[in-house]
Specification:
2 domains; seven-stranded mixed beta sheet; 15 strands
């Protein structure tokens, strides 16, 4: 009989996540009941939100409790089923957590079609990052043809999709990234109009040259100094979807020196999470699939084949910017 391995939270991290913050637990796999199916997880999504999920703080999800499996979105293959809508061999994705096996009744589980895109893409462009990009840009940013759209963390899982959607809508798109290699990637491969490497050039100085008529939409994945630098360049009635705060460590204050620009230029800054849009997810995925199949939306995944216990090393690469594309763990079979 197969044994389930779970990566469980041992303690709440202080600073960088480390292996001592987690422990491996082995459990038996219970028999299926009617309406359930068994998934063997093959891929696990590595997301910035995970850092917040393991902090003891109020959020849009309750924190992972000590001793519980680490929360995570996965893609896996169904190995047994007593559910009429899910068959053995199907690929499925959902919040099945950091473990080798999971039992589900199908709630908030989506089937994966590998003929449309490989399994890791269903954790990226066709998963939470793509859906987040879609609704944040279209519902809050509301770009129109000819608008100037600026995106931070523009080579990442969400930012890369935001920029491509904006280009599909006829916008001028500028991406902020952390290396010359990433600058080249978003311009030459994804079709952005320009890139700013914030590590080699101040954002404000670059925007003075690139945005003489200012910015209509700023899609913010990082907050902090980048947001503060951009506020003076926003147009009257500009829109800022606030998606993430990856530049701010847990417990650090988030300071804005240019906060008054929000008032003086009647700027809309609105936070959001993907779960705000659950009833509309199918609509978003259908449009993302159509763009991808027509060649108008490129996905890039950085897949690391490893074991559950190496999760801390992988997520730390995300926060240090060492990933190239959507970061995904592939569970090793050895």
């Amino acid at each position: 009989m197969a044994i389930n391995q779970q990566l469980c939270l041992q303690r709440r991290p202080s600073g960088e996540v480390c292996k001592e913050d987690f422990f491996l637990r082995e459990t038996d796999i219970p028999d299926l009941e009617d309406g359930q199916f068994l998934v063997r997880n093959e891929y696990i999504s590595i997301d910035p939100a995970m850092r917040g999920w393991i902090q003891d703080q109020e959020s849009y999800f309750p924190p992972v409790q000590l001793g519980e499996p680490m929360r995570g979105l996965t893609v896996g293959r169904i190995e047994a089923s007593r559910h009429p809508s899910y068959s053995v061999g199907d690929l499925a994705t959902g919040m099945l957590n950091m473990q080798t096996y999971a039992i589900s009744d199908g709630f908030q589980i989506r089937k994966v079609d590998p003929d449309i895109a490989p399994p890791p893409a269903w954790l990226g462009g066709l998963g939470m990052p793509g859906i987040t990009a879609y609704f944040g840009l279209l519902d809050i940013g509301r770009p129109m043809k000819g608008d100037t759209v600026v995106v931070s963390a523009a080579s990442g899982a969400v930012g890369s999709i935001v920029g491509q959607i904006a280009k599909n809508l006829g916008c001028r798109v500028i991406g902020i990234v952390g290396s010359d290699k990433k600058s080249k990637y978003i311009v030459e491969e994804l079709g952005f109009d320009a890139a700013i490497n914030y590590k080699s050039e101040p954002i404000g100085l670059a925007l003075s040259d690139l945005c003489p008529e200012k910015i209509d939409v700023y899609f913010d994945n990082v907050a902090g100094k980048a947001l503060d630098s951009i506020l003076p360049f926003m147009k009257k009635f500009g829109r800022i979807p606030l998606c993430g705060m990856i530049s701010i460590k847990p417990g650090e204050p988030a300071r804005l020196d240019n906060f008054f620009a929000l008032i003086s230029n009647s700027i809309r800054l609105q936070g959001f999470v993907m779960s705000d849009y659950v009833p509309k997810i199918k609509m978003a995925v259908d449009e993302l699939k159509a763009w991808h199949q027509s060649g108008q939306l490129i996905f890039k995944e950085d897949v690391r084949t490893t074991h559950l216990e190496n999760f801390p090393e992988v997520i730390n690469d995300l926060f240090s910017g060492k990933n190239e594309g959507k970061l995904v763990m592939k569970l090793s079979n050895d």
